[in-house]
Write a structure and sequence with these properties.
Number of helices: 4
Order of helices and strands: HHHHEEEEE
Distance between the termini: 89 Å
Largest sheet: 3 strands, antiparallel
């Protein structure tokens, strides 16, 4: 009976399929999650590029009106998979390219948002160098992938940045 059991090949394919099914499902899940992070990152980049035209079109708008316009454009771009209340938009104005603050939106010592990130709207004037950052903390299951900066809670940073210099138009100085 033992020799018959060892020679029986029925069900071998089912056992092989069961051994392969779990790693295959993990791989498919990781690919789908990576694609989602990539899509959100791409949508943030495209939305930010599109919304940056507002700095030239709405030349006399206040900084808060511009931030609201940028946020609205970005929300349209990423709305199916991202809650707009989780999106942070930060606008900073500098008098030259050399003075741009290169600090990231995540404080590495605390693993949370850097103090003041998403709350500054800059004083925009003719000749200003404007840095606009759109950031999102996206919860993922992967510990690797396209988004590399991690928060303390395990979510990953998805960031889009755009830099322009205001030449012809200057915004109103309301709130400066």
């Amino acid at each position: 009976m033992a020799s018959r059991f060892g020679a029986d090949q029925r069900g071998a394919m089912a056992v092989e399929f069961a051994m392969i099914l779990f790693p295959l499902c993990i791989l498919i899940f990781a690919l789908l999650e990576g694609a989602l992070v990539y899509w959100i990152s791409s949508a943030l980049d495209n939305g930010l590029d599109t919304s940056m035209r507002q700095f030239y079109i709405q030349g006399q708008a206040s900084s808060t009106a511009l931030v609201d316009g940028i946020r609205g454009e970005l929300c349209q771009q990423v709305s199916p998979f991202v809650k707009c209340e989780n999106l942070k938009v930060d606008v900073a104005a500098y008098d030259s390219f050399g003075r741009i603050d290169k600090a990231g939106p995540v404080d590495p010592s605390t693993g949370t948002w850097r103090a003041g990130f998403g709350e500054q709207h800059g004083c925009l004037a003719k000749g200003s160098v404007v840095v606009v950052q759109a950031a999102l903390a996206q919860q993922t299951f992967q510990k690797f992938g396209a988004a590399t900066s991690r928060f303390k809670d395990g979510s990953q940073l998805i960031l889009a940045t755009s830099v322009i210099q205001l030449d012809g138009n200057s915004t109103g100085s309301a709130g400066c």
